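Entry type: protein chain
Record version: 2
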Amino acid sequence: MSISFGFTLNAFGIFTLPIIEMFQCSHEQAARIATVFMVSMTLAMPAAGWLLDHVAPRPVMATGGLVTGLAYLAAAHSADLASFTAAIALCGAGVGASTYVPSFILVSHWFSPRRQGLAFGILLAVVAAGGTVLPIGLNRMVEVLGLRVAMQAGAVTILAVCVPLLLGLVRMPARASGAGGAAAAETGGRGAGEVLRMPHYWLWIAMFLLVTLSGLSILMGLVPYLVSVGYSAAQAAAAYGAIAAATIAGSLSFGALSTRQGAGRTLALGIVIGSIGLLCLLQASHPGFGLAAIVLFVLAWGTTFNLVNQMSPTLLMEFAGQRSFGSLLGIGNLISGLGAALGPMLFGHLVDTTKSYLLPVSLCAALMALALLPLAMLRRAPRRMQHGVAFENHGK
């Protein structure tokens, strides 16, 4: 996950300006690359989730990793923006089948719900580690060797590291490795149809969508925004990388907090802190304390913007159970992901239209704060159903 996201989703902010230069396109067209990637990735997630509710995860995830590497290599050799976009779309499908939803399904089988927030935090901290180093290294590689060579190196890394790891290490715990329906029956919980009729599920999706829409837009627009207000590309890439470092600290510290305060309260606190961080980002151009504002933004927003990915699966587990968890997590990611995928494109459109980043960044701050409303309405979920043998004798 660290490598796959490091060379794709976490790298598109670094690639925006080189893409504009290489294909002579607008900010909106360059931002559309991230949108297409997000759409294809989220379309693949429900299919991957459904498959992992019924079959072993190894062939699904390994195939996704192989598609990711080959499609990324094809993008590196693309002659025009259309073929580049198509290759990135295929790459997104591979990432969707091999990373977030499948990995969280695995973690949900290996850890009890009480410890899942911390377990998810450790997982995301490792993923963020790739975002700490790769943006700075990729920015330097693009400057010296060009975008195509940087992407070729990424494709080779994905094929040489990710695919063998997926083939060699991915497995369910012995207690959850039964065939399809038998395994699902063991773990208990509500069926997908029943959960889809619950208001809790749609409030959960609304909260997920608002935070993801805000976060993805900022993530994709941060480097061009900082460059536009007077910082160098290297300084902007350093801030981008620092966010990944802050995410590591946030994933671990808030994950530990969730074991005592619960996923809902922890996520609400994170949304408040992240919204404050976006207000600090608006002061980045101030001649007196612009640098301090960026530091505060990195500390506040960087430690919290990814909490929605960390805490949402546990919130879903609390009212849905394990039975159809993969399918429901995939459907939720599909709906929220498709909506959030419009964010970078809309962000770029507003920049092209207003010739300023003030409006899009302000809207992102408002959307993140607004997510507190559905989260507050998502009252204490029905006591989660017992998960039978899935968590029996946990820790032995």
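Comment: Residues 192 and 324 are 6 Å apart (CA to CA).
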